[in-house]
Amino acid sequence: MPAQDLDQIVNLCKRRGFVYPSGEIYGGFRSSYDYGPLGSLMLRNVKDAWVRTMVQQRDDVVLIDAAILGSPQVFEASGHLSNFSDPLVDCTVCKRRFRQDQLDDRDCPQSKKGCAFTDARAFNLMFKTQAGPIEGEGATVYMRPETAQGMFVNFANVLQTSRKKPPFGIAQVGKSFRNEITPGNFIFRTREFEQMELEFFVPPSESAQWYDYWCKSRLQWYIDYGIPAEMLRIREHAKDELSHYSAGTSDIEFKFPWGWGELEGIAQRTDYDLKQHAEHSRQKLEYFDQATNERYVPYVVEPAAGANRTMAAFLLAAYDEDVVNDEPRTVLRLHPRLAPFQIAVLPLSKKDTLMPLAKKIHATLGARYMCDFDETQAIGRRYRRQDEIGTPFCVTVDFDSLEDDSVTIRERDTTAQSRVKIDSLLAELSQRLGY
Ligand code: ATP
């Protein structure tokens, strides 16, 4: 059964080295997290899985990696300077600040009844900083609050150099920054996070059909990587929730322990962004179709996901507790592509006689997969550790291996063991891992 309580995952992440509070030796830096040896591998796997589906396995999407620091002109054109704000209210009793749209009722979650809120003020979420040695308005730069603007400002460059034509997409994975009023729920909402975004440029008449296509295929992606369908839903925004430029937005939501929460938004952004940047930069941002002699500004369908939130959802969904040989065990039933390690090589003993063979096997498997190597503790405890960090297969090297050129493969999900010749080990594991 998936984790019922966020603390089950928070504790496991700390105990096993997935995620630590940032700067913990100084008491932590509020709502910031550092990804440890396992978490950094898993987060990378989440992003790689996205790139594999969205770029590698398609012929109509290219990848870019744009700058994080941006000039005010970009965010003036995009509307972020004037509009990217949340409604902020102060509780006059406890003095805490809240996002008005996140309060269930008019009571303050802190001081409950008897509180009074100030009127809502618009609070811009962008982080502002200075570039260069001279302070002043001319040196103001912003840290991007989404990766999307990188795709719009590079539209003409990419069009020219990639030889694509609509429908085609520009994808990007990278950090974004928002000065959130109420960060929280572990890595669900932080001020620094990673996004995985696609801007898909289409002929205007095809926008609705591509919106439908991306809603369906993005939902399927989460299911393909192991989230049970009943823990996911698509929620279409009501008309009064839509941004002024949006012709339709749907969120893919995951059933978090505290309720449904957004993993990804899919929006029909029309030609708003390209037109804004064309106007502000005085550059032509359009497509000329030589076949039809038609010139037009493409419409955009944008699936925008968060890597950290998605990682939390994969962890929560994969978490399980069962009983093996009368002993309770915790197991992360992660998709092999998402698990920090696909394989762990475990020499049964630390004796010198086994080490060379075990290291050789680790080197061979390590050329293809991320492999752990663990020679500490009793073998049973080592299996439990690998179960808890989600490693699909352990390869155990024992004294018989020196005689029969075979090793034991032990499966995470069933704990079943089988003996395999070292010669065919890589092929066998590749078949079982599915890649
Ligand atoms: P929310 O309503 O939760 O603030 P949003 O609708 O503002 O999110 P988008 O602007 O659509 O979010 O960003 C796309 C994705 O980026 C979100 O679905 C989410 O996965 C991720 N994301 C946005 N803000 C944060 C954050 N503060 N921390 C972690 N991930 C975030």
Structure description:
It is a single chain. The chain has helices spanning 6-16, 37-56, 72-78, 80-83, 148-153, 155-162, 207-224, 272-281, 307-318, 355-366, 379-388, 399-404, 425-433, and strands at 19-21, 33-35, 61-64, 69-70, 85-90, 97-99, 121-124, 127-130, 140-143, 168-177, 192-202, 232-236, 249-256, 259-270, 287-289, 294-296, 299-306, 319-324, 327-332, 343-347, 371-373, 393-397, 406-411, 417-421. With 435 residues, the protein is of the alpha+beta class. It has 13 helices and 24 strands. The strands form seven sheets. It has a seven-stranded mixed β-sheet, with helices on both faces. It has a five-stranded mixed β-sheet with strand order 21-20-22-23-24, sandwiched between helices. A three-stranded antiparallel β-sheet has the order 4-9-8. It folds into two domains: 6-72 and 146-315, Bira Bifunctional Protein, Domain 2 (BirA Bifunctional Protein, domain 2, 2-Layer Sandwich); 341-433, Rossmann fold (3-Layer(aba) Sandwich). The protein binds adenosine-5'-triphosphate. Adenosine-5'-triphosphate is lined by residues 146, 178, 180, 189-190, 193, 195, 262-265, 304-306, 308-309.
Topology:
Layout: H1 6-16, E1 19-21, E2 33-35, H2 37-56, E3 61-64, E4 69-70, H3 72-78, H4 80-83, E5 85-90, E6 97-99, E7 121-124, E8 127-130, E9 140-143, H5 148-153, H6 155-162, E10 168-177, E11 192-202, H7 207-224, E12 232-236, E13 249-256, E14 259-270, H8 272-281, E15 287-289, E16 294-296, E17 299-306, H9 307-318, E18 319-324, E19 327-332, E20 343-347, H10 355-366, E21 371-373, H11 379-388, E22 393-397, H12 399-404, E23 406-411, E24 417-421, H13 425-433
Helix pairs in contact: 2-9, 3-8
Bound molecules: adenosine-5'-triphosphate.
